Amino acid sequence: MDEKTTALKAAIRSRLQARPVPADESERARALRYATAPEMFAPVLSNRFGPGYARRLRRELAPAYQATHALLHRLSHAQRLTPADLQDAVTNWQRADHFLARARRLPRTYAGARARLIARDNESVAREVLEVLAARLNRAA
User: Fold this and answer.
1) What is the pLDDT of residues 15-39, one digit of tens each?
2) In the chain, how many domains are there?
3) What is the Cα–Cα distance from 31 to 50, expressed in whole angstroms?
4) Low-confidence winner among 14-28, 86-100, 110-124 (lowest mean pLDDT)
């Protein structure tokens, strides 16, 4: 956060602390207190996942991303397809879909956006693997 935002938050908090809260506590006072609560300035869901979750997820995504691209290469150039290839493709797509679901829940930060981008690309390539496999099987039939 920049200095201006920090100063603004400090000013709002000091004004709220200086004012006595009425006994009946109006709707406006409750809304002000809620809007200036410290958790409202934190990134969305950051407390739930803990600090560095997006970066950890991105590190988990890297090998899955490489495996998906390797599977696409292997199945594109394979002479014969086996049932194990089909199972590998489906399992890979399920894993990519799981990573994408996890990435969609990340906070809207730079690291979260990078993880979402990698997860989206991984899921797209996993879908492409299934399409390549389906096209090869349809050609063989």
Assistant:
1) 656 555 555 567 777 666 666 665 4
2) 2
3) 27
4) 14-28
AA letter at 102:
R
Give the Cα separation of 118 and 21 in Å (integer): 48
Q: How far apart are CA 43 and CA 3, in angstroms?
A: 18
The rounded Cα 90 to chain-centroid distance in angstroms is 22
pLDDT at 87: 94
Question: CB–CB of 116/104 below 8 Å?
Answer: yes
Residue 36: closest CA among 2, 6, 12: 12
Residue 29: domain span = 3-41
Please name the residue ranges forming H helices in the chain.
3-18, 27-35, 38-41, 46-49, 53-77, 83-104, 110-140
Q: What are φ and ψ of residue 116, in 5° steps?
A: -65, -40
Q: Which residue has the higher pLDDT, 37 or 52?
A: 52
Q: Are residues 60 and 111 in the same domain?
A: yes
Please say if the pLDDT value at position 45 is more than 70: no
Instruction: Give the HSE-up count for residue 58: Cα atoms under 13 Å, Cβ half-sphere.
Output: 14
